[in-house]
Amino acid sequence: MQLLNTLYVTTPESYIHLDNDTLRVEVEKTTRLRVPLHHLGAVVCFGYVSVSLPLMHRLADDGISLVLLDSHGRFKARLEGAVSGNVLLRQAQHGLGRDPAFALAVARNCVAGKVRNCRQVLLRGSREAKVPEEAELLSRGAADLAATLRALPTAADLDTLRGFEGEAARQYFAALTTLLRASARASFRMDGRNRRPPRDRINALLSFVYTLLMNDCRSAVEAAGLDPQIGFLHAVRPGRAALALDLMEEFRAFADRLVLSLINRGQVGANDFVEREGGAVLLEGDARKTVLVAYQERKQENLSHPLLSEPVPFGLLPHVQARLLARTLRGDTAEYLPYLVR
User: Fold this and answer.
1) How does it assemble (predicted)?
2) Are residues 205 and 322 in the same domain?
3) How many domains does the chain contain in total?
4) For the chain, is the Cβ count within 10 Å smaller at the N or the C terminus?
5) Is residue 342 situated within a structural domain?
6) Closest by alpha carbon to 271, among 288, 255, 284, 257?
7) pLDDT in tens, 187-234
8) Which residues are annotated binding-site positions for Mn(2+)?
9) Is residue 341 part of a domain?
10) Domain span at residue 271?
11) What's the mean pLDDT in 37-44?
């Protein structure tokens, strides 16, 4: 399997255009980068980046997605080619999306995957903690998440299930900053998860990485021939890629671990953020490039998958899971099984 690479264009006023079978990046009429199109799975542009019309056509023809984000990483638009995939699969997805029992079963497993993987983050932290009080706090957090896992089968509807998920998230984020090195906690303290806009540095970093992960999950869903708008856990709303968000849940723990690593290694520091009027905190400058490089490197790390005989790069795991979900929608498998961290 080949890992589909994503090109991130972050330099303001860049111009990207088609040069035969190559994408060329220019800044002030100077060529900065050439990338053969067959090496690319997606192109993501931050802020004021110009894209030539011939390149747009070629990306659409070659099935390479073009994603436009604002300068702070918020999603703006996405260009895709013709819709691919089996229409019968999408019909099945739409029909099963209206089946309360089926939707609840898929949503429950998405939440179970998320909670279980987040619990593994806390358990690992507890084992590695040097301070007994911190190890105990992380162990209690892991125990709370284990209680949520035991309660999930009792959820009789999506609202109850979402309530369990919300409480688990609250317990998880309450313990998460304990995994930061002590010298970074004052700068990266958080009072739970907040967004739109993020109100502290760690939430700003989490939001940035979650945006990258969501784009990859949406690409995986679309590559499998599924409709990204029709989800099971996340309610259907205009403009929301509900199914991509469903798929993303089981991978959030990977994003969280990357964020913790960036802070603990000093790759991202307190001065890499700016506070805007109204209290919004945003990742700025070269730190975004640091995060993008680290994210791309993490995507190339090989992980085992219980259903495959060979290691899989993390960047391909959303594609594997999207295809497993498609098999469930076709009726080839009894239930959707999320990817679980070992």
Assistant:
1) Homodimer, forms a heterotetramer with a Cas2 homodimer.
2) yes
3) 2
4) C
5) no
6) 284
7) 888 887 877 788 889 999 999 999 999 988 988 888 788 899 999 999
8) 165, 234, 249
9) no
10) 87-330
11) 85
